[in-house]
Please model this.
Amino acid sequence: MTMSLSHAAYRRALRVMPGGNTRTSNFEKPHPTYLVCGSGAYVTDVDGRRYLDFQNNFTTLIHGYGHPSVVDAIRRQAGLGLSFAGPTVAEIELAELLVERVSYFEQIRFTNTGSEAVMIAIKAARAYTGRDLIAKCDGAYHGNYDVVEANVTTPPLAGTERPTPKGEHSGVARSALSDCLIIPFNDIERTRKIIESAADRLAAIVVDPLPSRIGLIAISADYLTFLRNFTLRNSSLLIFDQVLSFRLGYGGAPVAKPNFPDLCAIGKIIGGGLPIGAVAGRTDIMAVFDPARADRACVIHSGTFTANPLSMAAGLAAMTALPRSEFDRLNVLGAQARSLIAEAFASVGIKGTVTGEGSLFRLFVGPEQVASYADTFAAAHDPRLRSVVVRMRERKVLLSSIGLGALSTPMTGTDIAYLAETLEEALRSLKSEPT
Model:
């Protein structure tokens, strides 16, 4: 049997990279699919197979591949200079665009990744409050920073269990976990007891309005109001992690004014496909980054490629090409996708459900409802989900390994119909196999 080019590339990679990869998220058995090019909503692998891509580099590529404005901006900036020691006007322009779009963005500071954006938001909160403790939700992912790497894929907290931060992966410092407080998502009473017991140490609560690892379940209005009111009373900060969920609308995830966060970490779509992140928020809090502060108490934040001109140019082009009308169109398609996915489960007669909002969806095989991290944890370990994702890939549709999908602007209703058709085929194939 002839070895595929992807398989051959993986064997080659194993000789020079641990596990054959640089991103843990790319690890797949028996080997990953190596990609070579993309156009519109499609990608092509090294073996010449063409896929309808709902991964979009883990929700980043909201314009898919090869958007003319983004490509032209990168090409133009590359001819002027790849990076400089000094700032560029494009950095100001992208900052102005984002501050104009989001009413609670007063000032902004760019980073190279979403993980870094969360990291410096936490540092800003500690500098501003003079406290160290950070609260995060059980099951939520906030990037690769020790204090928020706790309890991401660990079993959910039991109803009466005292929350203990658990660094499930090697390399997370035990000392960092002592500055992390775990709270249950959307559970007001349990959260109240936990944070009140440590209120005098609490610098900030970090929360994602639509956490993908918890199940792509929206934060409840009551829970958000509770968090906002508690942090105000306690002189702590509320930090939104919208690295992924910023694609939900023209101004990011919808939130009413009384519940505006103090700081917000964003990334992914704002870079036009290039590395980027940012933290934005109130001017008085963002002032902790000001190197001209007389009290010499500024938070040091630099980085060789921070606000590099290629990312700034690509991000400005990508965001300019996303008016309100385009978000509205994408969100309508997203609603259609979730509806058709639900219909596919019903048509085949396999239990399952779909979650998400806007241009995002996540499918589950087994449960008929996912409303909590406990539901998500149980469903995520069902081998049938992995089987469905693989069967869809065999039929030339790409989803993430956890069943997460993101739409891109080149997609149309035809693509959404094909997604549902392919899912139905994958489910029928699964059902036909002997148990």
In short: The mean pLDDT is 95. The chain has two domains: 33-66+324-432, 68-320. The CA atoms of residues 353 and 368 lie 5 Å apart. The domain at 68-320 is CATH 3.40.640.10 (Aspartate Aminotransferase; domain 2).
